[in-house]
Amino acid sequence: MREDIRAYLRREPERQTRAARFFEGIPEIEDDLGDAALDAQFDAAQRIAPSEAASSLLVVRLSGNSIRDGWIDQGMQDAIVSPLMQEVEYAAPSAVRDDVRLGLVGVSTGSVLLHYRPRVPIRSAEPEQLAYDVHPADSAVLRISELHDLLEQEASAATIASAFKEDHALLRQTRKLVEALDENAVNLSTRWWGSNATRRKSVLTRRGQAHGLRLFNAEEKDELSQVQGMVTGLDISGIVTVTGSANHKHKVDVGPERMSDSEFVLGARVFMLTKRLQEVDSVGVSQGHARYKFIRHLTQPPLDV
User: Fold this and answer.
1) pLDDT digits (tens, 9 = 90+) for 106-136
2) Domain range for 184
3) N or C: which end of the chain has fewer CB within 10 A?
4) Number of compact structural domains in the chain
């Protein structure tokens, strides 16, 4: 039982007596009461009609002082739900992202309960695979649940960076989600009923959000970088656009006083040493676009680009 409920009961001895009689013989629930009730609802439905068993279903529960009577502001919903859905997509291989895209299929009472299913609800096993249905959304949702749990457990930056070192796009969406939850003072819990009867629950409370904000707080880092290519843009503020191989563009701050340099002419090819400035958080994810500051021209002729 949660400590706030215990405190409520302690204030009036009669409350404790009535509660003891009411809960006599019922196992103590350590989980959030709303989440426990939700689990019981689906379990009961499955016992009555096995065909009603939840499958490939994600139930998102939003709670907090800013949510009353199941009402949520449209702006708050967009700010929270959008990065959560993007998390699931980026946690899946690019080839199946259309299949795992989640869509809203129901809303129920109890704080705010949003029900989602994948765009393609069933994917049958290939002939050479084991003979049961699988769905890539299973692994994707389990992946983001793992990440949310690490934040809730206040795992170290090194632990998260190691576990998600190839998932920077996913981590960027998690940062957006954490910021939106914190800004709106909302707690998030998710329940996943997988296609193969796998169940997974996860929470991201104020504790996990605060830890996430610390981890995703970026600091600017710099390094020397060589930039070469064709001058394709000039701005009187002192920004020179250099387009290199594969049409990559770098905006280099050379300062207004250097705009008259003979090297900075539209169509000219340049080769220069710059300082590359990039904001990077403690889990190694870059944020925003890199900035380049001119140091000097290099004498080595630029390579063909």
Assistant:
1) 877 667 888 898 887 665 555 565 545 568 8
2) 32-215
3) N
4) 3
